[in-house]
Write a structure and sequence with these properties.
Number of strands: 2
Shape: globular
Distance between the termini: 50 Å
Radius of gyration: 15 Å
Mean pLDDT: 88
Strand order of the largest sheet: 1-2
Number of domains: 1
């Protein structure tokens, strides 16, 4: 099976593990794939993906912005619409639960956090005129 197209310009970082240099997907690449392939492409809103996006907002905002930059503006509205049709309890019930999340605030409210992030990204790309 072929790898899907790479959404970011720098999908891998050169890391060394036990003396061997390997390419590890960057945070931006992982987040872009969650947004583009799973959420947008498959309409799969998994708790772990939404949690990762919510946590990235605090821990790696640059990677999150890079990931959002891979999504065309009209598709942000598609994601926003999909998120608006969900509730946190349903997402948790319908996907694997988060096991011992390190960031309990984000784990308790990941859907609302990601909804705000998408709204902020839409506003960043479409600033109000007037």
């Amino acid at each position: 099976m072929a790898d899907p197209p790479v959404p970011t310009t720098q999908p891998r970082s050169a890391d060394t593990v036990r003396g061997t240099q390997i390419g590890v997907h960057t945070n931006a690449e992982i987040l872009a794939r969650k947004l583009g392939y799973r959420i947008l492409g498959e309409s799969a809103f998994l708790s772990r993906d939404l949690y990762d996006l919510a946590v990235a907002h605090h821990l790696d905002a640059v990677a999150l912005e890079t990931a959002f930059d891979t999504i065309h503006p009209p598709n942000l509205f598609v994601i926003q619409r999909g998120l608006s049709e969900l509730d946190q309890a349903t997402v948790v019930r319908d996907s694997r639960s988060l096991l011992h999340p390190a960031h309990t605030g984000e784990a308790a409210d990941f859907l609302a956090i990601v909804q705000r992030l998408v709204e902020r990204e839409i506003a960043r790309r479409n600033p109000p005129t007037g």
